[in-house]
Design goal:
The complex is a heterodimer of chains A (100) and B (479). With 100 residues, chain A is an alpha/beta fold. Chain A is built from two helices and four strands; from the N terminus they run E-E-H-E-H-E. Chain A has a domain of 60 residues. In chain A, strands 3-2-4 form a three-stranded parallel beta sheet, with helices on both faces. The longest helix of chain A is centred in the middle third of the chain and has 14 residues. Chain B is an alpha+beta fold and 479 residues long. Chain B has two domains: 112 residues, Glutaredoxin (3-Layer(aba) Sandwich), CATH 3.40.30.10; 324 residues, no CATH class. In chain B, 29% of the residues lie in helices and 21% in strands. In chain B, the strands form seven sheets. Chain B has a five-stranded mixed beta sheet with strand order 3-2-1-5-6, covered by helices on one side. In chain B, strands 14-13-15-22 form a four-stranded mixed beta sheet. In chain B, a hairpin with a 4-residue loop joins strand 11 and strand 12. Chain B is elongated and about 100 Å long. Classes of the chains: A alpha/beta (100), B alpha+beta (479). Chains A and B meet through strand 1 of A and helix 5, strand 10, helix 7, helix 8 and helix 10 of B.
Chain lengths: 100, 479
Amino acid sequence: MTISGTSSMNRFVLDPTNERRASTVERVGRPESLRGLTVGLLDISKARGDVFIDRLEERLSEMGADVKRYKKPTFTKPAPVDLRHEISINCQVVIEALAD
Amino acid sequence: MALPALPEGLVVIVKRECETCRMVVPVIEQLNNGSLPVNVYVQDDPAFPESLSPIHDTDLSISWHYDIETVPTVLHIENGVEVTRTVGWVRDEWHRVTGQTDLGPNLSAFRPGCGSLSVDPDLVDELRVRFGATTLSARRVDIAEAEDVFEAMFDRGWTDGLPVIPPTEQRVMRMLTGTTRQPTEVVAIVPPDLVEITVEKVAINAVMAGCKPEYLPWVIAGLEAVCNDTFNIHGVLATTMPVGPVIVCNGPGTRAIGMNSGMNVFGQGNRANLTIGRAIQLIIRNIGGGRPGEVDRATHGNPGKLSFCFAEDEIGSPWTTLAESRGLSRTTDAVTVFPGEGPRCVVDQLARDPESLTNTFAACLRTLHNPKSVLAFDAIVVMGPEHARVYAEAGWDRERVLEEIHARLQIPGSELIRGAGGIAEGVPERLNGITLPKFRPGGLLLVHAGGGAGLFSAIIGGWANGDVGSQPVTKEVLP
């Protein structure tokens, strides 16, 4: 039996996603030179990431960059919002170092 | 939709198909001669009963909104509000509701009614959508006539690589009957995109995973358990290690919904085990935005990332349950989530004494992730019934079993330092002189599950533990 007034078979499904539209952010232009710029080096706290970052710091300093070091509390979680904010206001360039 | 109004006085809801309804027509005619106005609503034949000028409940709106489950139902309406009702034919009840006496003097005192059309299994899903779907706020995604709906869902990136059930309004509304929570209620904030998820979106993904409505509270509890800083599903998803959320279910509800805790407990064949975990993973993908190759960076992953969910065999267990060991009562339904890899088998077919069997467990657990790795990873020991029996006969309880395993996993630093045993991996040289435990305190979880035959158990290895990584989380399952 059908009920009067009801529709026939649906041809739509309900959206299982978060229905967000990703916003695109314009990438900052690549600097001509690092001389005089502040470069943030973010250590994600993985074993031996510091070896890589120490070397980067040496090289960047030789190139005349002002290097600031930062570190995430743990590699397993996103960087805390305060840390991200601090980097964004202090640095013109940031390098995040992975390990493994 | 607002409750449709009913006229003042007595309202009788009937259908011609029902023999009791046909039987009580003379009684309704008797009522019609009384002081209260009488209105008859009919569900099927608009002309029945002719003598009473019935109103056709064309779309079953009245029956649906007034929760009519049986016909005939007599309602007494005063000032627009139902004050009382009775169902079927029970003479005393009709007297009470109508205020009249001597109704149906020639009838027997009692005759049960029939099922209302508004609860007919063939119609109920459609009615639920008709009168309830306006509460659903998810975007409707049109599927073209020429499009195969299953292919369309693959094309939109909504699946885990296996086909999913199309989440139609009917199916989602039916799924929502599995919980008392409102569709708009926020359940969790889902990483990695940190998006709020409502009960409605959980239900949509649960439909896609193949869940039954009665599984929905388990999906919701599992989701609450993984979406927090303690369990850290963001890290569990993003890691290069092969782990995913392992969901261990406890409580009488596991048996009520037919979960498997026995033979082939981690394997194929059980709908609840396979779809509850799958729903949670689909939510991480579709709501959280966590997809393999994007935020999910697993080197190998493991097949359990489709669904790794099982129940503890509590009935056959000689021990307290996992949920009890984590502070809940035996009668509480609960999920415990653990960041785990695929299970590996522990074989010991000769041990008949607990010491010997414990030596085997310790030796196998020693190799977890690397024989030289200590303190970094937790593990679940899933004890098969035949192994558990050895401990039960010796009178070892859960705590004793775990203590004895821990006692055998105190390892000299000299075996663990970098380079020892010809293996570069290891702890720093400065730890050479001290003894280190393989597992941190509380880092071993014990669960009783598996088939009744086979002197086997299983180990599920964990991921970076503690505050830097993930901690197991236990949540109560609420209706």
